[in-house]
Amino acid sequence: MEQRRLGQTGPHVSALGLGCMGMSDFYGPADRAESLATLSMAVERGITLLDTGDFYGMGHNEMLIGEALRSLPRDRLQVSVKFGALRDPDAGWSGYDSRPAAVRNFLAYSLQRLGTDHIDIYRPARLDPDVPIEETVGAMAELVQKGHLRHIGLSEVGAATIRRAHAVHPIADLQIEYSLLSRGIEDDILPTCRELGIGITAYGVLSRGLISGHWSKDRGGARDFRAISPRFQGGNLDHNLALAEALRGIAERHGATPAQLAVAWVASRGGDIVPLVGARRRDRLEEALGAAAMRLDAGILAAIEAAIPPGAAAGARYPDSQLAHMDSERQG
User: Fold this and answer.
1) Considering 56, 96, 122, 203, which one is annotated as catalytic?
2) Separation between Cα atoms, residue 94 and residue 87, nearest integer Å
3) For residues 118-137, b (16+ Cβ closer than 10 Å) or e, as one string?
4) What is the pLDDT of residues 125-160, one digit of tens each?
5) pLDDT per residue over 261-301, tens digit each?
6) Domain boundaries, the chain
7) pTM
8) Domain 3-330 adopts which CATH fold?
9) Is residue 56 among the annotated active site residues?
């Protein structure tokens, strides 16, 4: 698989990464054996970047990846971990903690659950409003010096915060939602990252399945994030599924699936962007891998832009209660 470098200072990684969140949380039940088989298949097929968060399933996702790593070539892989989100025993949310002492504490537990002596890219999941980003990044920089971390990343922060963080220590990449339905980063955040030499790992490239070609109105269920996502509600869902159908038409004319076209579109936005595919099953992973070899010419790109122009999605990408915690939304 093609390799891409995360920014000017980050590691070389596979052109597609595997987002592992859905194997533990947010999208309903997942099958452990199938998840492990999917992780193994991803590495066999050339994916080297595995993305997780210590709060996915309250540590479950890290333990799952840790189990997989025991039979995978750890020295050829890059593990990316988000930290700082606080959960409770009922799987609720209690805010964020990015104090230096908390950074060291979260890291110690992640290393144990993953069964590794270092994390390749470590990033706060959201900006902690009570802790200056300089303090958080400063603590992470000390952990880089000690060898516990290889690179520092950020997640869902705006341009001003990116600049402040990068002034303390080089930032390898920003992890942020980017898809045909979520293009807000193009205004300010993406240009800032490119000015500073910071890569992008793009999550939500299929808009949580909405433009995958596999979503229907009768899907969803308990403990599925999409049950509260504005884009999956009422008239918003009807509108967005119409966009998905338009994408399906373009994909079929070019011998691809909507999911492949959506992933390939994100990858086409620049060599500094690495899409994360959230496959939980081998068949979905196989489909996503088909995007790695796709090269979208000017005609296909123009057709996609005409069918799904910027701002075409109906509904916000998160509920208001979660958008309130997202620095990226406040600063562009």
Assistant:
1) 56
2) 6
3) bbbbbbbbbbbeebbbeebb
4) 999 999 999 999 999 999 999 999 999 999 999 999
5) 999 999 999 999 999 999 999 999 999 999 999 999 999 99
6) 3-330
7) 0.94
8) TIM Barrel (3.20.20)
9) yes
